[in-house]
Fold this protein.
Amino acid sequence: MDRFEAMTFFVTAVEVGSFSAASRKLGVPLPTVSRKVADLEEHLSARLLVRSTRKLSLTEAGEAYLVSCRTILDQVNDAERTVSGEYTAPRGDIVVTAPIVFGRLHLLPIINDFLASFSQIYVRLVLSDRTLHLVDDRIDVAVRVGHLPDSNLVAANVGTVCRVVCGSPAYIAGAGRPKTPVDLIEHSCVNFEGLASGPVWTFASARGKKPDQPVPIHPRLSVTTAEAAIDAAIAGVGLTHVLSYQIAHAVEQGKLTLVLRDYEPEPIPVNVVRAGEKLQPLKTRTFIDFVVPRLRKALTGDKDRLRTGMAAHAHAVKA
Protein backbone atom coordinates (compact mmCIF):
# COMPACT_ATOMS: atom_id res chain seq x y z
CA MET A 1 0.00 0.00 0.00
CA ASP A 2 1.24 3.49 -0.88
CA ARG A 3 0.65 5.15 2.48
CA PHE A 4 1.43 8.65 1.18
CA GLU A 5 -1.23 8.25 -1.51
CA ALA A 6 -3.70 6.80 1.00
CA MET A 7 -3.09 9.74 3.35
CA THR A 8 -3.76 12.13 0.48
CA PHE A 9 -7.04 10.40 -0.34
CA PHE A 10 -8.05 10.40 3.34
CA VAL A 11 -7.29 14.11 3.90
CA THR A 12 -8.98 15.13 0.66
CA ALA A 13 -12.12 13.15 1.47
CA VAL A 14 -12.36 14.85 4.87
CA GLU A 15 -11.77 18.33 3.43
CA VAL A 16 -14.37 18.05 0.66
CA GLY A 17 -16.84 16.05 2.73
CA SER A 18 -17.36 12.85 0.72
CA PHE A 19 -15.62 10.15 -1.28
CA SER A 20 -17.42 11.18 -4.46
CA ALA A 21 -16.26 14.79 -4.12
CA ALA A 22 -12.71 13.58 -3.39
CA SER A 23 -12.90 11.38 -6.49
CA ARG A 24 -13.79 14.40 -8.64
CA LYS A 25 -11.13 16.61 -7.08
CA LEU A 26 -8.36 14.01 -7.38
CA GLY A 27 -9.46 12.77 -10.79
CA VAL A 28 -9.51 9.10 -9.75
CA PRO A 29 -12.38 6.57 -9.71
CA LEU A 30 -14.65 6.61 -6.66
CA PRO A 31 -14.00 2.92 -5.80
CA THR A 32 -10.26 3.67 -5.73
CA VAL A 33 -10.69 6.43 -3.15
CA SER A 34 -12.92 4.28 -0.97
CA ARG A 35 -10.61 1.26 -1.22
CA LYS A 36 -7.46 3.25 -0.42
CA VAL A 37 -9.02 4.72 2.73
CA ALA A 38 -10.29 1.28 3.75
CA ASP A 39 -6.79 -0.16 3.23
CA LEU A 40 -5.40 2.62 5.41
CA GLU A 41 -7.87 1.81 8.20
CA GLU A 42 -6.99 -1.88 7.94
CA HIS A 43 -3.27 -1.08 8.11
CA LEU A 44 -3.82 1.07 11.22
CA SER A 45 -6.30 -1.36 12.78
CA ALA A 46 -8.48 1.67 13.54
CA ARG A 47 -11.63 3.19 12.12
CA LEU A 48 -10.95 6.73 10.87
CA LEU A 49 -14.29 7.70 9.33
CA VAL A 50 -17.98 7.19 9.99
CA ARG A 51 -19.66 6.90 6.60
CA SER A 52 -23.23 7.97 5.93
CA THR A 53 -25.29 8.64 2.82
CA ARG A 54 -24.83 12.41 3.22
CA LYS A 55 -21.37 13.04 4.63
CA LEU A 56 -18.26 11.70 6.29
CA SER A 57 -17.45 12.36 9.92
CA LEU A 58 -14.24 11.66 11.80
CA THR A 59 -13.85 9.24 14.67
CA GLU A 60 -11.69 10.27 17.61
CA ALA A 61 -8.80 8.29 16.11
CA GLY A 62 -9.50 9.90 12.73
CA GLU A 63 -9.27 13.41 14.17
CA ALA A 64 -5.85 12.72 15.66
CA TYR A 65 -4.62 10.98 12.52
CA LEU A 66 -5.86 13.83 10.29
CA VAL A 67 -3.62 16.31 12.12
CA SER A 68 -0.60 14.04 11.66
CA CYS A 69 -1.40 13.43 7.98
CA ARG A 70 -1.64 17.13 7.25
CA THR A 71 1.69 17.75 8.95
CA ILE A 72 3.38 15.00 6.96
CA LEU A 73 1.84 16.06 3.63
CA ASP A 74 2.76 19.70 4.25
CA GLN A 75 6.36 18.73 4.99
CA VAL A 76 6.55 16.69 1.78
CA ASN A 77 4.99 19.54 -0.22
CA ASP A 78 7.46 22.01 1.31
CA ALA A 79 10.35 19.77 0.34
CA GLU A 80 9.06 19.48 -3.22
CA ARG A 81 8.53 23.24 -3.49
CA THR A 82 12.07 23.84 -2.28
CA VAL A 83 13.52 21.48 -4.87
CA SER A 84 11.31 22.83 -7.68
CA GLY A 85 12.35 26.40 -6.93
CA GLU A 86 9.13 27.74 -5.40
CA TYR A 87 11.13 29.27 -2.55
CA THR A 88 13.66 30.83 -4.94
CA ALA A 89 11.36 31.97 -7.78
CA PRO A 90 7.79 33.35 -7.71
CA ARG A 91 5.77 30.45 -9.09
CA GLY A 92 2.94 28.13 -8.14
CA ASP A 93 -0.62 28.41 -6.82
CA ILE A 94 -1.89 30.91 -4.23
CA VAL A 95 -5.27 30.79 -2.47
CA VAL A 96 -6.50 34.21 -1.32
CA THR A 97 -9.66 35.14 0.58
CA ALA A 98 -11.41 38.46 1.20
CA PRO A 99 -14.88 39.78 2.10
CA ILE A 100 -17.18 39.72 -0.92
CA VAL A 101 -17.62 43.43 -1.66
CA PHE A 102 -14.10 44.40 -0.61
CA GLY A 103 -12.64 41.65 -2.76
CA ARG A 104 -14.65 42.65 -5.81
CA LEU A 105 -14.06 46.39 -5.51
CA HIS A 106 -10.46 46.54 -4.34
CA LEU A 107 -8.64 43.21 -4.36
CA LEU A 108 -9.70 41.76 -7.72
CA PRO A 109 -8.37 44.70 -9.80
CA ILE A 110 -5.03 44.40 -8.01
CA ILE A 111 -4.92 40.64 -8.61
CA ASN A 112 -5.61 41.24 -12.31
CA ASP A 113 -2.52 43.47 -12.46
CA PHE A 114 -0.52 40.97 -10.43
CA LEU A 115 -1.30 38.13 -12.83
CA ALA A 116 -0.20 40.27 -15.74
CA SER A 117 3.17 40.78 -14.04
CA PHE A 118 3.82 37.23 -12.78
CA SER A 119 2.97 34.66 -15.42
CA GLN A 120 4.02 31.62 -13.35
CA ILE A 121 1.70 32.32 -10.40
CA TYR A 122 -1.91 31.13 -10.37
CA VAL A 123 -4.41 32.68 -7.95
CA ARG A 124 -7.65 31.25 -6.55
CA LEU A 125 -9.70 34.06 -5.01
CA VAL A 126 -12.30 32.96 -2.43
CA LEU A 127 -14.78 35.77 -1.76
CA SER A 128 -16.67 35.12 1.46
CA ASP A 129 -17.99 37.18 4.36
CA ARG A 130 -17.31 34.15 6.55
CA THR A 131 -13.91 34.18 8.25
CA LEU A 132 -12.02 31.22 6.82
CA HIS A 133 -9.30 29.47 8.82
CA LEU A 134 -5.97 29.92 7.07
CA VAL A 135 -4.54 26.51 7.97
CA ASP A 136 -7.67 24.34 7.95
CA ASP A 137 -9.04 25.91 4.74
CA ARG A 138 -5.63 25.97 3.03
CA ILE A 139 -5.57 29.76 2.61
CA ASP A 140 -2.26 31.43 1.81
CA VAL A 141 -3.27 35.09 2.20
CA ALA A 142 -6.39 36.74 3.64
CA VAL A 143 -7.76 40.26 3.81
CA ARG A 144 -9.41 40.81 7.19
CA VAL A 145 -11.73 43.74 7.89
CA GLY A 146 -11.93 44.02 11.67
CA HIS A 147 -9.78 43.73 14.77
CA LEU A 148 -7.54 40.67 14.74
CA PRO A 149 -7.55 38.22 17.65
CA ASP A 150 -4.27 37.28 19.26
CA SER A 151 -2.80 34.53 17.08
CA ASN A 152 0.28 33.45 15.19
CA LEU A 153 -0.87 35.32 12.06
CA VAL A 154 1.51 37.76 10.43
CA ALA A 155 -0.38 40.95 9.55
CA ALA A 156 0.27 44.06 7.46
CA ASN A 157 -2.14 46.93 8.07
CA VAL A 158 -3.38 48.62 4.90
CA GLY A 159 -5.74 51.20 6.41
CA THR A 160 -9.13 51.58 8.04
CA VAL A 161 -12.79 51.75 7.10
CA CYS A 162 -15.77 53.22 8.94
CA ARG A 163 -19.37 52.29 9.61
CA VAL A 164 -21.43 55.04 8.00
CA VAL A 165 -25.08 55.98 7.56
CA CYS A 166 -26.13 57.29 4.18
CA GLY A 167 -29.13 57.95 1.99
CA SER A 168 -29.98 59.43 -1.37
CA PRO A 169 -30.09 63.24 -1.66
CA ALA A 170 -33.73 62.97 -2.73
CA TYR A 171 -34.67 60.94 0.35
CA ILE A 172 -32.86 63.32 2.71
CA ALA A 173 -34.45 66.34 1.03
CA GLY A 174 -37.88 64.84 1.62
CA ALA A 175 -37.48 63.21 5.04
CA GLY A 176 -34.94 65.59 6.54
CA ARG A 177 -31.42 65.02 7.83
CA PRO A 178 -31.16 63.16 11.15
CA LYS A 179 -29.20 65.18 13.72
CA THR A 180 -28.68 62.40 16.28
CA PRO A 181 -28.96 58.61 16.09
CA VAL A 182 -32.24 58.74 18.03
CA ASP A 183 -33.76 60.59 15.07
CA LEU A 184 -33.58 57.34 13.09
CA ILE A 185 -36.83 56.33 14.80
CA GLU A 186 -38.58 58.77 12.48
CA HIS A 187 -36.79 57.54 9.35
CA SER A 188 -37.21 54.73 6.89
CA CYS A 189 -34.18 52.45 7.29
CA VAL A 190 -32.65 49.75 5.11
CA ASN A 191 -30.86 47.16 7.24
CA PHE A 192 -27.96 45.07 5.94
CA GLU A 193 -28.21 41.97 8.10
CA GLY A 194 -24.58 40.98 7.56
CA LEU A 195 -23.15 44.03 9.34
CA ALA A 196 -24.66 43.52 12.79
CA SER A 197 -26.63 40.97 14.80
CA GLY A 198 -30.23 42.06 14.46
CA PRO A 199 -31.60 45.50 13.54
CA VAL A 200 -29.28 47.40 15.89
CA TRP A 201 -26.93 50.12 14.62
CA THR A 202 -24.00 51.17 16.80
CA PHE A 203 -22.91 54.78 17.19
CA ALA A 204 -20.37 56.72 19.20
CA SER A 205 -21.50 59.58 21.40
CA ALA A 206 -20.93 63.05 19.98
CA ARG A 207 -17.17 63.64 19.78
CA GLY A 208 -16.57 60.18 21.25
CA LYS A 209 -16.69 61.11 24.93
CA LYS A 210 -18.77 58.06 25.92
CA PRO A 211 -18.75 54.36 24.97
CA ASP A 212 -20.44 53.32 21.74
CA GLN A 213 -24.23 53.24 21.96
CA PRO A 214 -26.49 50.63 20.27
CA VAL A 215 -29.57 52.12 18.64
CA PRO A 216 -32.43 49.72 17.80
CA ILE A 217 -34.14 50.47 14.51
CA HIS A 218 -37.29 49.20 12.85
CA PRO A 219 -36.15 48.59 9.26
CA ARG A 220 -38.51 49.29 6.42
CA LEU A 221 -36.41 46.83 4.41
CA SER A 222 -33.91 44.16 5.51
CA VAL A 223 -31.53 42.55 3.03
CA THR A 224 -28.72 40.01 3.20
CA THR A 225 -26.12 41.75 1.01
CA ALA A 226 -24.50 45.15 1.21
CA GLU A 227 -25.04 45.70 -2.51
CA ALA A 228 -28.81 45.32 -2.11
CA ALA A 229 -28.89 47.73 0.84
CA ILE A 230 -26.90 50.30 -1.11
CA ASP A 231 -29.07 49.93 -4.21
CA ALA A 232 -32.20 50.43 -2.11
CA ALA A 233 -30.72 53.52 -0.47
CA ILE A 234 -29.79 54.99 -3.87
CA ALA A 235 -33.37 54.30 -5.00
CA GLY A 236 -34.65 56.42 -2.11
CA VAL A 237 -36.09 53.68 0.11
CA GLY A 238 -34.34 55.08 3.17
CA LEU A 239 -31.10 55.38 5.12
CA THR A 240 -28.71 52.44 5.31
CA HIS A 241 -25.76 51.52 7.54
CA VAL A 242 -22.77 50.03 5.71
CA LEU A 243 -18.98 50.27 5.51
CA SER A 244 -17.38 53.33 3.97
CA TYR A 245 -15.51 51.55 1.18
CA GLN A 246 -18.78 50.06 -0.05
CA ILE A 247 -20.32 53.45 -0.89
CA ALA A 248 -17.28 55.68 -1.61
CA HIS A 249 -17.92 55.80 -5.37
CA ALA A 250 -21.66 56.41 -4.89
CA VAL A 251 -20.93 59.34 -2.54
CA GLU A 252 -18.40 60.79 -4.97
CA GLN A 253 -20.96 60.52 -7.79
CA GLY A 254 -23.62 62.27 -5.71
CA LYS A 255 -25.88 59.22 -5.52
CA LEU A 256 -25.59 58.98 -1.72
CA THR A 257 -25.00 61.46 1.08
CA LEU A 258 -23.47 60.68 4.48
CA VAL A 259 -25.29 61.65 7.67
CA LEU A 260 -24.52 61.42 11.41
CA ARG A 261 -20.79 61.73 10.78
CA ASP A 262 -20.16 63.02 14.32
CA TYR A 263 -21.52 59.74 15.69
CA GLU A 264 -19.48 57.27 13.66
CA PRO A 265 -17.75 54.58 15.78
CA GLU A 266 -14.00 54.12 15.82
CA PRO A 267 -12.50 53.17 12.43
CA ILE A 268 -12.13 49.46 11.69
CA PRO A 269 -8.65 48.19 10.72
CA VAL A 270 -8.03 46.36 7.45
CA ASN A 271 -5.13 43.90 7.38
CA VAL A 272 -3.50 41.52 4.94
CA VAL A 273 -2.61 38.38 6.91
CA ARG A 274 -0.84 35.08 6.42
CA ALA A 275 -0.01 32.14 8.64
CA GLY A 276 3.24 32.55 10.54
CA GLU A 277 5.16 29.64 9.06
CA LYS A 278 8.96 29.87 9.29
CA LEU A 279 9.67 29.33 5.60
CA GLN A 280 7.49 31.50 3.39
CA PRO A 281 7.33 30.72 -0.34
CA LEU A 282 8.54 33.50 -2.59
CA LYS A 283 5.19 33.48 -4.42
CA THR A 284 3.46 34.50 -1.16
CA ARG A 285 5.98 37.19 -0.31
CA THR A 286 5.78 38.52 -3.85
CA PHE A 287 1.98 38.62 -3.74
CA ILE A 288 1.86 40.40 -0.37
CA ASP A 289 4.53 42.92 -1.40
CA PHE A 290 2.49 43.66 -4.53
CA VAL A 291 -0.91 43.88 -2.84
CA VAL A 292 -0.20 45.80 0.39
CA PRO A 293 0.86 49.22 -1.03
CA ARG A 294 -1.92 49.10 -3.64
CA LEU A 295 -4.60 48.35 -1.06
CA ARG A 296 -3.30 51.23 1.06
CA LYS A 297 -3.65 53.51 -1.95
CA ALA A 298 -7.16 52.18 -2.66
CA LEU A 299 -8.37 52.84 0.90
CA THR A 300 -6.83 56.30 0.88
CA GLY A 301 -8.66 56.90 -2.39
CA ASP A 302 -11.94 55.90 -0.73
CA LYS A 303 -11.46 58.54 1.95
CA ASP A 304 -10.69 61.15 -0.72
CA ARG A 305 -13.89 60.20 -2.58
CA LEU A 306 -15.95 60.61 0.58
CA ARG A 307 -14.45 64.05 1.25
CA THR A 308 -14.93 65.13 -2.37
CA GLY A 309 -18.51 63.92 -2.45
CA MET A 310 -19.48 65.53 0.84
CA ALA A 311 -17.78 68.83 -0.10
CA ALA A 312 -19.66 68.88 -3.40
CA HIS A 313 -22.94 68.15 -1.60
CA ALA A 314 -22.32 70.91 0.97
CA HIS A 315 -21.57 73.38 -1.83
CA ALA A 316 -24.76 72.37 -3.67
CA VAL A 317 -26.84 72.85 -0.50
CA LYS A 318 -25.41 76.33 0.10
CA ALA A 319 -26.00 77.27 -3.53
Summary: The chain has nine helices and 14 strands. Residues 164 and 241 are 6 Å apart (CA to CA). The domain at 3-84 is CATH 1.10.10.10 (Arc Repressor Mutant, subunit A).
